[in-house]
Each structure stands twice: as C-alpha cells, then as structure tokens.
Amino acid sequence: MDASQTTPTLAAPGLARKIGLARATLAWEGLWPRFVPLLSFVALFVAAAHLDLFAGLDPWVHTGILAAIAIAFAGLAWWRLRDFSWPTREASIRRLERDSDIPHRPLVAVQDHLAAGNADPMAVALWQAHRRREAERLAGLSNRPAHPGLASLDKWALRFVPLLALVVAIAVAGGWRSDRMAAAVTPAFPPPPPVVANLWIAPPAYTGKPPVYLDMADPDKVLRVPVGSKIAGFVDDVRGRKPPQLSIDGKATEFSTVSKGKYQVEEVITEGKQITLQARGDEQARWKLHVIPDLAPTIEFTRPIGVDKWSTKIEYLAGDDFGITGVQLQMRLHGSVLGDDALSSDEEPEVLRVDLPVAGNAKKISDTFVRDLTSHPWAGLKVTVMLFATDALGQKGRSSVETFLLPERVFNDPTARALIVLRKALTRDPKGYRIDVADGMRLIHGQPSSYREDPVVQLGLRIGSVRLAQNDNKETIDDTQKLLWDLAMRLESGATSDAERAVEQARQQLQDAMQRQAGDEEIEKLIQQLYDAMARWQRELAEKMKDPDERRRMEEQAEKMDPNNTITGDDLQKMLDKIREMAKNGQREEAKRMLEELRKMMENATPMMANPNGQQQRQQQGQRGQQGQGNQQGREMMNQLDQLSRRQNQLLGESEREGRQQQGQRGQQGQQGQRGQQGQQGQQGQQGQQGQQGQRGQQGQQGQQGQGQQGQGQGQWGDQQRGQQEGLRGRLGEFMQKLDENGLQMPESLGRAERSMREAEEALRRGDPREASRAQRRALDNLQQGMGDMAEQLRQQRGPGNNQDIAEIEERERRSEDRDPLGRSDGNYGDAIDSGSDKVPLELDRQRSREILDELRRRAGDQLRPKEELDYIDRLLKTY
Asked: What is the pTM of this model?
C-alpha cells in the first residue's frame, strides 16, 4: 500500500494532539544534543564574566576577544545545526505508532483505500469492517517521553563542567552581577572628552565692573550684567561634528572655528533672560541672565547762577548709574534781547557750548564752574543756560533752564565804554545795527584824543569800520565783535591785558586738567605754562609802569585798596610754587582750591604790584595802617604757637614709640631667662654642673654685653631727644618774651607748658621714655590751651581783620575735633559730596605726604615683594 494515497481519516479523539507531541519529541531529541555545546559555551562566558576575567584588559584587546568569541559561537552553532531538519508528519505518525506498541500500523490502515473490487458489494463491506476495527485500535495510541541519548553521547559527563563553573562563579561573585556582565560585553574605551567651555561676560569698560565667569557646574546662579556687555570665550569639542551654538533667549549664534575641535564666540548682550550652550546636538549648559539697563544721566543746578565780580559761577550736581563721561554748558541769548528779524527767522539761534572738565567716569559729580565770560559778545545781556550730562552710551540728561544776566566788565575809560556799547548793539541785531555801528566806529576814529592817539586803536577802528560797512556775513560780524573788545581792553588796561588774559587762560587750563585727572606730564607742562604767562605779565606790567601817568594812576588805585590785602610778586610766586608741590604730591583738590584763590588774587594784583612802596605809604595813613600791622603780627604769632604745638606732638610720638620698644625688649629677655632655667634643671652630674656653670658664665657675659649695648643705645637716643626738647623749650621762651615786647599778656598755660617741657628733659636724661611722654603730653595740652587763650586776647582787641583771623583759628580747631586718625573729615565717605572744608595743608603735612609717596614708589620698584602687595601699591599710586 502507498501511504501517500489517503482517504478521509475516521474520527479519533486527540489524534492530532498526539501526532503533534510525537513531532515535538522528535525535534527535541534532534536539537538538544546539538544545543548542549552551545549552552556550555554560553555558561563558560557567563562564568568568566562573573569571575571578572575581562577586567583590566586593553579596550582593543577586549574588543578582539569578544569578536573571537562571537565568531566561535556562530561557527559552533552552524556546525551543530547544519544537518538538522524538522520532523515530517509521516515520521511523527511512525513515532507515535512505535511509542504505542500497536502492530499493523493502524494509523496507516485507516488512511488506506480499496485497491480493487470497488464494484463488489461484498468486498466493499469487508473493507469497511476492516477500517472500523483498525479505528477502534487508535484509542490505544499514546506518547512516550523524549530520549535525546546524551548519556550515550557524553559518557564522561563533561556537559556538567560548564554548569558547575557557572554555579561556582556566581557564588564567588556574591550572586548575579549585572554590572560585571555589562563590563564583559562592553570594552572599557575611555569616554569621549567632555565639552570644555571657557565663557565669560565682560561688562563695558566704563561700568568699572569685573568680568563674570560662566560656571557650567553652577547653572542656578543669576548672571547680573549691564546692557552692552560682551559674552566671549572658547569651546573645546574634538568629537563634535558641527560647531557649537550659543543661544540667548532662542537667538542662536554659531561659534567660529579656530582650529580642529576649537571654537570661539563673541556676542553683545542687549537683552535676554537665559543663555544656553548647545554642542553635539545636546544642551550642555544653561544659565539665568539678568540684563541691567543703563539709565540716562541726570544733572541739575544746585544753586542759582551767581556772579563773582566778572566771573560766572555755576554749581551743579550730576549723576549716572555707571559714570558720566562729559558735561556741557549750553547758553543762548534770551528772546527778549533779540531783534524782530532774529525772532522771525527760521535759522537756528546761536548756541555757546562749553565743555566742562570731568574726572574719569565718576558716578556722582558735584562741582563748581567758574569762568570769566566777559569777553563774549553776550556779556551784559540776558541769556538762558542749560546743562547736559552724557554717559558712555551717548545718552544725555539735561537740567532745567536758568535765565540770568551774563556779567560784563566795568570799563572806566569813556572811549572803551563807547566801544562796548557799539559791540552790544551789534550783538542784539547784527543786520539792523551794522551800519550804525560802522558809523560809530568812524566817529570815534575821527577823535584821536579820545583814545590817546594810540596807533593800534586808530588802525583797528579804520579797518573794522570799512569791513563792517561792506560785508554783513557772520564771519565779519564775529571779527568786528572781537576787534571792539580787544580795542576796549587796550584802552582800559593797556598792553598788559593780553598778558593778563594769557595768565587766566593758563590758570583755567591747569584747573581743568586737574579736574579731569590728567597725567603728571600734562600737569607739569601746564604749570610751566602758567609760570611763563605769569613772568610775561609781570614784565609787561613793569614796562607799563615806566609811563609816569600810568604809574600815578595805578598808585592812586593801590592807595584806595584795603591794606590787609597786600599782594606782591613774591606772594604770587610762592603760591605757584605751592601749587606745583601739591600737584606732585597728588593733592590736586587742594591745588584746585589754591588756583581759585590765585584767580581772586589776580583781580587785585595789578595795582598792588605796581606800587612796591605802598606798604610804607599805607603805614602813614594813621590808625588804619597800624591796625593792619597788628593783625599781621597776631597772625604770625598764632602760626608760631601752632608750629610749637605740632613739634611737641612729634616729640611725644617718638617718646611713646621708644617706650613700647623697650617694653617689648624686656619681655623677650624674660622669656629667654625662663628657657635658660628650664634647660639647666634638665642637666645632672658633675659634668652637667660644670656645663651649667659655664653656660651661666656665658649667659651672664652675653647678658651684660646686651644690656650694655642696649643702655648705650638708649643713652644716645635720650641725649638726642633731650636736646630737641630743650631746643623746643628755648623757642617757647623766646615766644613768651616776644609776647611781652608786643604788650600782650602771657597766658598761664604757656608757663605750665614750659615747666612740663623741663620735666620731660629730666626724664629723658634718666633714660625713662614713659615718664618723658607723660610730661610731653601735659606740655602739649598746655600749648593747645595757650592757643585758645591767645585767640581770646586777639578777639578782645577788636582790631580790623582780627575777627577773620580768629574765626579761621576757631574753625581749624573745630574741624580738628571731627577728623579721623588720618586727618579726614568724618562722614565724607563713598559718594558723599566734598564740602570743600579741607584747607591747604601746612608745610609739615606736605613734607609727610612727600615722604609717604617716595616710600610707596620705592616699594613699587622692589620686584621681590609679593604680587598682592605690588598690585595694592600700584592702585595707590594711580591717583598720583
């Protein structure tokens, strides 16, 4: 029979399931022997991983081993499964029939068909009966367990060795170790280098703020930077395929490539709340950002505009959050003084702009602008003034509008006054009064006696009138205005007016340079320029005084002046010397105040310098001159007593310093004696005793030598200090004798001061600095009390000028009580406005300032000092 020729199978419960189990049994028996080597291979790998055999391998060696293991496993799997085929249905039926031990293969019989005799009913009936009988036997079919036959294949049971190794490895590892499994299949290649970002934000230089570093480890820090700050830096990303990007609130800026793996960026921050750094397609860092806006500056007048004789005085206060770079004064003619044509004209009115000096980028400026504007064509007319402050971004703030009458110079010469009237008319309405002014100039030109037949004035009037009559342009108008002023000044002051203006110009330039903190070289150059201008002015003044009429007129003016305001060329020279010295010492505020005093002195300097014998003439004027001389003597005596007090204060400081040094040396000697006794107690035996005696002898000799040297040094210091104290006491005695000669009552406190000085001398002779300092302190207190007593005597005399002198002395004493140990006013800290109460320092203070400055420069040149100290000294010297 052909088993392939089948007929419908008779129904048998569970027959398909049994055939499927038989197929699965055949497949398992074919696969399991083949899988055992593969599973053993895997077990050995897992055991090696748990024993951490792959640790410490070179990454590339580890990679090679894994590749070899993978190839070996793939080859073994192919070799073991190369001849395996899935069991067929016929093989499954045959396996089921064998497992059931049923003969004659009933499963095949029920599927066969009748080969012949299909037309014979008897044959068909017999065939059907045969099939039914075989179908009844199908119920006895059953499956048996699979038998792979590993025991026959592996007689030595080597298949259990990998299993045992796996169990031991897991036990040694302390359980299943996922980390070791991951390390076994992952070579320990070094991680890719991280993205290294060096970013910083540099605020604008004018803000004075330090750069801000962007720390990738501190993303929560809020970066507070001024607007206009520049973010810059570098990024190292050798693994990156694209340049990194820097985003500020989503606005991305790509880094520029410097070299392979190195990038740089530079971007200005104007706004934003967040900075993001992106590299390798991911966000690497993020920072919070707060942009500080730069507000516009403010400026206001602190006082109404004042007039100091011929000078315009403007006091103002300006401020900005990051610093002011410029202050400008703008002045316009008031509409009330302009003509109808000027008011109806579409042209922009003329503006006088004056740039005021500003020191650096000061956040707060409180200053006073004093300038002689009498030479301007608007002098004597009503003007409007505004102040403008500018910061580094170009933002401007303006003040309110002030209206005042621009001061004009008072001319005594009638012709000069007439020329100024013509000049003022030309300023009010250049087009309307041009011809009238030209006619007025011709009229004055025709009267040579009115200007003393001065050829310069004559020529100037002739040429100026012709030009003004022929031309009406602005250049001609300006030249004519300047010409009228120069001619009026020549008639009023003669040729010295140019030299005097040169002195004022040099003084103003020097003051402006000090205000804006110019360098030492520029300051020295401007000081020399002021010296030269002053010398030229004095020479021209001397030449002018050769004219008898001019000399008589100047002497008459000098006799009418206050005798207490004596000014000579020596006074001006001394003041210039002090200004130069203060500028060298860095005392520029004091130097600026002295320049202002120089300006006021110059206003009275001409008549006083023209009358060198005026002091004798004034002394002959009676009681007024005597009172002035008494004022001068009182001032000199108060200055002498003040110098004695300062010198006594110096000696007191030296005595106290010597007392502290001696006390420290005694303490060191006591400590050395205690250590010597402890060392002697530790030694024993005769040899030790001899050594102790020898040591005591040496120590005694050294101690005597040290004490002798110390005593000798103290003796030299005591003799020198006693000599200085004795000399100071002698000066005090001469001072008291001078008081008696001038008819002044000697204060009792000065007598007590003299006795205290004598006690200090005795203490210094004994070598006792502590007792000497006590006596010197009493002497100093008595001297200061004596100054107060003398001030009271001078007040009682009520002489002219005494009240002013005493007020200055009392003001000096009052301010000395409100100062810190360094001599600075209490409360004048930070942005506090300097009230200008600090007076010009005395010679002793300036000498001390020079010594400190020289010492700082010496230390700055010592490169062996620590860098922090050198940086600190450089910051101190920047101001000087």
From this structure: 0.47
